[in-house]
Amino acid sequence: MEYLLAARFRGYYPVIIDIETSGLNSQTDAMLEIAAIMPAMDEQGYLYCAEKIHFHVLPFEGANLDPKALAFTGIDPFNPLRGAVDEREALTEIFKCVRKHQKNNGCNRSILVAHNAAFDQGFINQATQRCNLKRVPFHPFASFDTACMAGLTLGQTVLAKACEQAKIPYDNNEAHSALYDTEVTAELFFYMVNKWKALGGWPV
Q: Which residues contact 152 (CB under 8 A, 6 or more apart)?
């Protein structure tokens, strides 16, 4: 069986992720929301969304909760209406979903895709260590950064401006929700990869 997606990124399965946090320091600050989008590839070699998964996350014990960061995101970490779960449950379920799609696409490892990816990767790595999780599907340090990709392909590195250049709708009122930002980042990633394919940059 031929796996087009596996051939596209050297056996890596790209997973688009966004995280909302209680600050900028992945060692001391909490992950408060996380969303992930699993892509698939059609017979012509174009990417599209196959599945979305999203969690509100409870701060880990002793986490720093920066009031400025909370005001920026508008998240009340302990609001019971959030239906938040602990970071172990959130990551366990996301990793399980990632491994399923990774296997279905014939890939041997997954790679994180995010806007300014080092930020999100740092929080995932720290939470993974805190929870002592095994069978982590992601490469520990390699990633696809859509900010860098957009700088190259669209001349813009800010997510909103890159989306404007690509004619992808972007609502500032919805921004800083992990699910919304993941959806927009996925659209941008798909646009850039698919555009490169359409221009003949990656023959099937």
A: none
- The dihedral over CA atoms of 27, 23, 114, 38, expressed in degrees to the nearest 10, equals 80
Positions marked catalytic: 176
Instruction: Give strand pairing partners of 113.
Output: 16, 144
- Structure-derived torsion over alpha carbons of residues 174, 101, 99, 63, reported in degrees to the nearest 10: 0
At residue 135, what are phi and psi to the nearest 5 degrees? 55, 45
CA distance 150 to 50: 23
Over residues 39-49, the pLDDT tens digits come to 999 999 999 99
CA 151 to CA 155: how far, in whole Å?
4
Chain centroid, CA 11 distance in Å: 18
H helices present in 46-141, as ranges: 67-73, 87-104, 117-131
Q: What is the pLDDT of residue 202?
A: 81
